[in-house]
Amino acid sequence: MTVLETTGLTITLDGQPLVRDVSFGLAARDRVGLIGESGSGKSLTALALLGLLPPGMRTSGRILIDGQDHLGAPDRQWRRVRGRTVSIVFQEPLTALDPLMPVGRQIAGPLRLHQGLNRSDAERRAIEWCDRVHLPDPARLVRALPHELSGGQRQRVALAMALACRPRVLIADEPTTALDVTVQAQILTLLDELIEETGVGLLFISHDLPVVAGLARHLLVMRNGRLVESGLVDDVLRRPRSDYARQLVASAARVTRLARPNVRGEDR
Amino acid sequence: MSTPLVEAVETIEAPDIPDRPRRGWRSPSFVVGAALLLAILALALVSLVWSPYGLDHTDPTARLAGPSGQHWAGTDRLGRDQFTQLMLGARTAVWIGLASVAVAFAIGVPLGLLAAAAGRFVENAVVGVIDIVIAFPTLLLAMLLVTVYGASTGVAISAIGIGVSAEVARLTRISASRVFTEDYVLAARTCGTGPLMILARHVLPNIWHTLLVQATLAFGIAVIAEASLSYLGLGTPPPAPSWGRMLQEAQSTVSVAPWNVLLPGLAVAVTVVGVNLLGDGLREILDPQLRQQRQAADR
Question: What ipTM is given for this predicted complex?
């Protein structure tokens, strides 16, 4: 069943359209990749799906969450679905965590809010979640402040926070872009594991085709605020129909060819 | 198609979580500032239970006497013991200072938070009011209030409190607005956290240290303002003692009894220097960024 569906989503700022007529749907266990260059409207689309666009931006179209149109809904109605039905992980895990709050309390926050858990139950659940995202020594780590963790560990905390209330859709907005390549691979592996385990539907936003291709089954390609292509990952990679998708695939292939000698070099 | 991803290796090191030591309490400005303020506070507290003479005790045989064993700080032209006046004046200064800061924060913090959290319209309205109050001299405000309600401790506290509250509201709004634009507030909102919870869980914990430093500085401003009002006869009415009125009364006899001017002036100066040093020290101790730098340096 479709959890999150948008039809004809258009976002304008001062009459200038930033996102135009975007439509797609997402069900539990779906893995959709949204790819496009910076400024193409990917992140705006993500924020719009949570009703959190910056003030001044206007939206039209429909955003259905569990069949109910949320576009233009009051904040009170949005707050019931944020974190509970739809969650998001951002690109930069350092700034996405409150620098003065122990990470355990940050994971526990949504649990106390949506599930009404008391402090100690929420903290116990936070420790469980730290364990599930493979953070070392969870009972001690929940008391750490964000700056005491590494970038990868912070992103694990952000994932735990986003998934704590068992949402049915997770939006991952370039969750690995700010990380080292090795850490990036670890986070992607973890993400893969978590979505298998929890059955959450994934909308993975990135500008990096190989990363998206490794994780998603369905691909949306965005350019200048429009969806220019949509299809299964394999189909798009083999038979890109739009010019932009063709360019993307060609340049990704070139990068892969260039990278291969290095990889071999390391193997020896 | 092969991706250039290196095979994931789960090599996560245990985090380096130091037990956070509260370093920095020995910073010189904090220690000196605290010592000066404690001295003033001690004067005020001791005056509650003991002072060399009673408040209305006059010694007509020893007018304008210099400092002696009998009158530690001399007497004024009515023969009142100046050390007694100084101690009771400290009580007035501390009380009015604390009360005005409380009034200023009770008005300023909610107003600043409202401006930061509400939409543009409310924010502009509040900023306008703040600017007007900041531009309006506190002394003029006090004169207006005294004209209407007559001079009293309450009027002095209200006038100083309202005057200082504008500065507090401005700082609160600026600090809180900065926090509201942070990603972690957006992240909290994506989890469904409402505006009041964001204020309580994220905004206040991230700005209280700034506000506390501002409170110490505001206390210094309030003490000076109280002395000025009393000097002008707009503060606490006699017989309640006040450093400002001591200064004003000693003015006519300054050529024969200069110590009578020196002492209350010194008391005001010590208080203000004390709170400023204390504020500087607190800033060093509490500022999260400086704290993290200290921790990093400790490792």
Answer: 0.86
Instruction: Using pLDDT thresholds of 50, 70 and 90, give the confidence band for residue B1.
Output: very low
Question: What is the reported pLDDT for A23?
Answer: 93
Mutate which of A98, A165, A238 to test chain B, going by most B C-beta atoms within 10 A?
A98
Q: Contact at 8 Å (CB) between B202 and B188?
A: yes
Residues of A in contact with B191 (CB under 8 A): 82-83, 87, 109-110, 113, 161-162, 165
Q: What is the DSSP letter of B13?
A: P
User: H or E stretch including A173?
Assistant: strand A169-173
Binary contact (A161, B18; C-beta < 8 A): no
Among candidates A19, A14, A56, which has minimal Cα distance to A39? A19
Contact A157, A74 (CB under 8 A): no
d(CA B108, CA B219): 14
pTM given for the model: 0.81
Residue type, B212: L
Name beta bridge partners: A12. A17, A58
CB contact under 8 A, A90 and B186: yes
**C-alpha dist (Å) from residue A162 to A87, A242, B147:** 5, 34, 60
B20 Cβ neighbours under 8 A, 6+ residues apart: B295
Which of A90, A182, A184 has its CB closest to that of B183? A90
Closest by Cα among B112, B94, B92, B136 to B220: B94
Helix %, strand %, coil % for chain A, to 5? 45, 25, 30
Contact A87, B190 (CB under 8 A): yes
CA distance linking residue B211 with residue B171, whole number of Å = 8
Average pLDDT of chain B is 83
